Amino acid sequence: MIHPRIVIMIVTVVALGLFIGSAAPAAAQYPPASSCQTTIEERVSSELRQRLTQRISVFVNQKVLNVLNIDNSPSERYDSATGLPIAEIGLNQPYLPLVGAAPGAWSGTIQMGLEGTDFTWNVRIFQSSVFITRFPIHMFPEGSYYLTVCGARLLRVEIPEDYDPFSEATGT
């Protein structure tokens, strides 16, 4: 008779092998990225031409729509030079809530920033390739910036002239 501990060990090894084997096809469907920036740029470019999410999704200001899809810009406006959606910051909104997912494109930690500044914001990526963050917009003066992920432009952010993030009630 086989000892129960040996049976448990064998079952565990077999189950682990089946789990790893079943995860491989899911990972194989995404081509290896030459760099995070190149991958994100390609996915954003592709997504801007789609009505439904295909390869990357980004949700801004707790809206339910992927802002990268056709007609889903949070401000209903698009950058004329890049075609990227524009997110308008509220007069007293200190943070920009963001949720994003790009299966196979990133893992561990990504760096977000506003193009033209030397500020970087490290964001943890969950195992499901999802990130959730509140980007600190209050650290920047009024103006128009491109929000970047891994150096790739994701959307344009507009901070209004009379911006006062900590006046009255705080925004989102």
Distance between the termini: 64 Å
Integer-rounded radius of gyration: 21 Å
The overall average pLDDT, rounded, is 82
Strand-pairing-aware structural class: alpha+beta
- The share of residues in extended strands comes to 25-35%
Query: What does the main sheet amount to?
Result: 5 strands, mixed
Please report the total strand number as a whole number. 8
The CATH class designation of the largest domain is: Mainly Beta
What tags apply to this protein structure?
8 strands; Immunoglobulin-like; 172 residues; globular; three-stranded antiparallel sheet; 2 helices; five-stranded mixed sheet; alpha+beta; 2 domains
